[in-house]
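Hey L., structure's done. Input below.
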Amino acid sequence: MTMVDVSDSVLGISGWFEDFAPGQRMRHARAATVGELEGSGPAKQVMNTAQAHFNDHFLTGSSLGDDRIVFGLSTASLVYGLASQDTAEHAVAELGWGRLRFLAPVHHGDTIEAFTEVVSVEPGDFPDASGVVGFRHWGRRQDGVVVFEGERKTLMRRRPVETGAGTTGSGG
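Output:
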């Protein structure tokens, strides 16, 4: 008996393991403006004591700009989040992040857009087994300056196969 995963009916039609190929590039549909909450909150939560994250006047006149800078991992999370609709909707698990690089400051009020390149596609051990997809993500500000780059590996489901009874079975 084939089980039907009802969540398949609410997910997008693309973004399955088979939809990714090395060298494929994406510009993600949404951008987001960094607000006070996501900009400074996480720095305070993890007790990051760098004043540039929470002191309004600390950077005045500096080469990083006059305003507070956003906590770097907030920038990384925002870029990964903006990319997730296209790169993680059918993910089984996030396997890791690596090579995080913070290339330019992000300030409250900056708008970030995300881009992705598929760097690797590794099929599972069996024809219907989930596979691993490696991504390189980057984000840029509204002025076109790239502010972040990072890599990510995700365990991705295969596209369900139609069965003779009109139901779908899910690859594991």
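The longest helix spans residues 72-87. The radius of gyration is 19 Å.

-- N.
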